[in-house]
Amino acid sequence: MKRLDVSAHMASVICGVSKKTIFNWEKGKSTPDKYPGRYYAVALVIWSRAYYLMKKRKETKIRESDLDCGCNYFIKLYAGFKYMDI
Predict the structure, then answer these.
(1) Which residues pair with 48 in a beta bridge?
(2) CA 11 to CA 18: how far, in whole Å?
(3) Is 75 a residue whose pLDDT tops 90?
(4) What whole-number distance in Å separates Cα of residue 84 and Cα of residue 56?
(5) What is the mean pLDDT of residues 69-74?
(6) 54, 62 in Cβ contact below 8 A?
(7) Using CA atoms, how far apart are residues 70 and 50, in angstroms rounded to an integer?
(8) For residues 50 and 70, is the Cβ–Cβ distance under 8 A?
(9) For the segment 2-34, what is each residue's pLDDT rounded down to a tens digit?
């Protein structure tokens, strides 16, 4: 699979955090559980959904079920884009 770099700005939009937060995570400053980095767009979208679910529960660890939900979220998102005129 080809590497798809995601800009810091786009990663911040996907994850719902600031660019500064993205840069801090990449420097290892309070990096959240299982953060994949911003080098694979698909992994980042899946992780961001799992991160959202973890934060919603006010926990600090991502569950496997969160990642499953993230995968399902990506599939639905991709299916929606696939049939849109862009």
Answers:
(1) none
(2) 9
(3) no
(4) 30
(5) 86
(6) yes
(7) 5
(8) yes
(9) 445 678 888 888 888 899 998 898 888 888 888
Residue 68: both structure tokens together: 């499953």
For residues 79 and 86, give the distance between their C-alpha atoms in angstroms, rounded to a whole number. Answer: 13
Distance, in Å, from the CA atom of 25 to the CA atom of 76, rounded to the nearest integer, reads: 28
Cβ atoms within 10 Å, residue 54: 18
Contact 22, 15 (CB under 8 A): yes
| Sequence spans of domains, the chain | 8-82
Residue 30 zone, left/alpha/beta (φ > 0; ψ -120 to 50; rest): left
Helix (H, G, I), strand (E, B) or coil at 86: coil
- Residue 37 CA from chain centroid, whole number: 9
